[in-house]
Amino acid sequence: MATDSQHTLKRKRLGQELRRIREEREITRSAAAAAIKGDVTKISRMELARAYVSPHDLNTLCRLYDVPPQQQFELEQLIVEKRPRHWWREYSDVMNTHLAEFVALEDDAVVEREYQPMVVTGLLQVVDYMAAVMETGLFALGPDQIESLIAVRLGRQRRLVDQRVLEYHGIVTEAALHIDTGGRDVMRQQMLHLVEMAKLPNVTFQVVPFNGPRRAAYATGFVTLGFADSADPDVAFMEGLGGMIPRDARREVQRFDRLFHTIEAAALSPDDTVALLLERAESLE
């Protein structure tokens, strides 16, 4: 069985390889579905890593796609059994599918870049700030849900703060420092926490100032994740009304990478950002 950190990545890689091979062979999803005695939806879900690929189905597709024995063996190594028990599965009742996918991938990422226009980036939030964010908005949550989602976010922060195995670069606009999220005391606590987090060797934090160039004005938050194994392509997630939406097509990920670097170039330097955070914290005393 795949380990917790490998499980989602193996499924995604297998699905991407099956799609790539099928398209190279110019075989339709309908033909592939007929071969495994399934429907087109099943093939789509397998290729998107939203359905498990059984050894029997993989063997059938490899015959249909005329996959050489060595390549078939490599694909077989990507088969995973029923999802293992991840630490966040305890909170599955409050996590939608996309959030669960994001947390699973983030748990194996070694590089994360995040931009948020109106709130502090999630991995750098203090608990009171998290609660204030979750209590408001289109999908305001109840106390029990908030408690569980805070536990998930704190669990995510461990790889950044305790284990320090994640290289993190967060960018927000100056508006995120001024929107009163939780009151003055919470905002001051959050500003000082950002200052401390910015000191970590694996954390880079920047703010796009109010007078930043127009090219940095992007209204939607997004995250990109990179992995240690070059065989695992980067993925991106975009903020939507329903939460995190995966965007893992190669061209889409490249667009988000370019956009992040554009915003980065318009942001204050990390040192100037810390100075701004201290100034903002002092104004909240």
In short:
This protein is α/β, with parallel strands linked by helices and 285 residues long.
3D architecture notes:
This protein has about 280 residues and is of the alpha/beta class. It is about 50% helix and about 10% strand. It has 12 helices and 6 strands. The protein has helices spanning about 5-25, 30-35, 40-45, 55-65, 70-75, 95-105, 125-135, 145-160, 175-180, 185-195, 250-265, 270-285; strands at about 110-115, 165-175, 205-210, 220-225, 235-240, 245. The protein has a 6-stranded mixed sheet, sandwiched between helices. Strand 4 and strand 5 form a beta hairpin. Helix 7 crosses helix 8 (about 145-160) and helix 10 packs antiparallel against helix 12 (about 270-285). The longest helix has 21 residues, at about 5-25. The chain starts with a helix and ends with a helix. Residues about 1-5 have low confidence and may be disordered.
Number of distinct beta strands: 6
Strand order, main sheet: write it out.
Answer: 3-2-1-4-5-6
The H-and-E topology, N to C, reads as: HHHHHHEHHEHHEEEEHH
> Low-confidence parts, pLDDT < 50 over ≥5 residues?
1-5
- So what's the oligomer here? single chain
Tertiary shape: elongated
| Helix/strand/pairing category | alpha/beta
Number of continuous helical runs: 12
- Major sheet summary line: 6 strands, mixed
End-to-end Cα distance: 53 Å
Radius of gyration in whole Å, from Cα? 21 Å
The whole-number mean of residue pLDDT values reads: 87
- Helical coverage, percent range: 40-55%
Query: Which percent band covers the strand fraction?
Result: 5-15%
